[in-house]
TrEMBL record:
InterPro entries reported in the protein's UniProt record: Cell_Envelope_Assoc, DUF218, Rossmann-like_a/b/a_fold
Keyword match Membrane: yes
Protein name: YdcF family protein
The organism's place on the tree of life at top rank: Bacteria
Residue ranges constituting the DUF218 domain according to the UniProt record: 78-244
Transmembrane segments: 12-30, 42-65
Keyword Ligase belongs to the record: no
Keywords of the record: Membrane, Transmembrane, Transmembrane helix
Secretion signal, residue range per the UniProt entry: none
């Protein structure tokens, strides 16, 4: 019963509510014989909108990206490079102000755990993207120190605003520090684009994906057909990554 309630509830809030309203409008237009062409077009758009807002489709797109690179069992490198993914400014933290967004925080935690296993230095790459964002590199330094990483094992690149700049600025810092075998830590859905940008910057990396969004194996149940804002967000995220990969390859 609880799953039936959850399914029905998903059509009360956006985007499910909008799917329902568009479907009602399409049916209403269909009743007017002169508007059946418009109704058919609207129905097709509604179906596409509905599918893109379900976990069934969104997770499939994300999983395709997350499966590109398996997580290695053995770390082989001389530095752990972790990419940022956004930060908030002025928000309270344990030992200061500013917090990483979810994906960036997961990447940072993975880098800390790898440092504890290997003793390799951590190079964090990420700056301030928008005026109301925090500077990721500065926040990362404070948080890394707070998690017990010694300052001598921390390298910060705090000027990058996108993945291309991450790769270019990190490559320059690696050359400056005499490092050549980076272990690249970023979200599984972001790894393919990140590896491509680092290759373009002349850097060969060992991919170490983390921050997975889709469970394995994927299972089918009614809830996966429910529209949700989270599923639509994953769909948009996957499309953004595919578009970024395409642009990088054509550039």
């Amino acid at each position: 019963m609880i799953y039936l309630i959850k399914f029905a509830y998903s059509f009360i809030l956006p985007p499910g509510l909008f799917v329902l309203l568009l479907l009602v409008l399409a049916v209403w237009l269909w009743r007017w014989r002169r508007e059946r062409k418009a109704a058919s077009i609207l129905l097709a758009i509604t179906l596409l909108f509905y599918l893109s807002s379900t976990n069934l489709v969104g997770d499939a797109f994300i999983a395709g990206l997350e499966n590109d690179y398996p997580q290695p069992s053995v770390v082989q490198g001389d530095v752990i490079v972790v990419l940022g993914g956004g930060a908030a400014s002025g928000t309270p933290d344990v030992d200061g102000e500013g917090n990483m967004y979810g994906s960036a925080a997961n990447r940072l935690i993975t880098a800390v755990r790898l440092h504890e296993q290997t003793g390799l230095p951590v190079l964090f790459s990420g700056g301030q993207v928008f005026a109301d964002n925090g500077n990721e590199g500065d926040i990362a330094r404070r948080q890394l120190l707070g998690m017990g990483i010694p300052d001598s094992s921390i390298l910060i690149e705090n000027r990058s605003r996108n993945t291309e700049q991450n790769a270019q600025n990190t490559a320059a810092l690696l050359r400056e520090k005499g490092l050549s075998r980076p272990v690249l830590v970023t979200s599984g859905f972001h790894m393919a684009r990140a590896v491509l940008q680092f290759e373009k910057a002349g850097v060969t990396v060992q991919p170490y994906p983390t921050d997975y969004l889709v469970s394995r194996p994927m299972k089918m149940y009614a809830g996966r057909l429910s529209p949700s804002a989270g599923a639509m967000s994953n769909m948009g995220l996957a499309l953004k990554e595919h578009l970024g990969i395409l642009v990088a390859r054509l550039d």
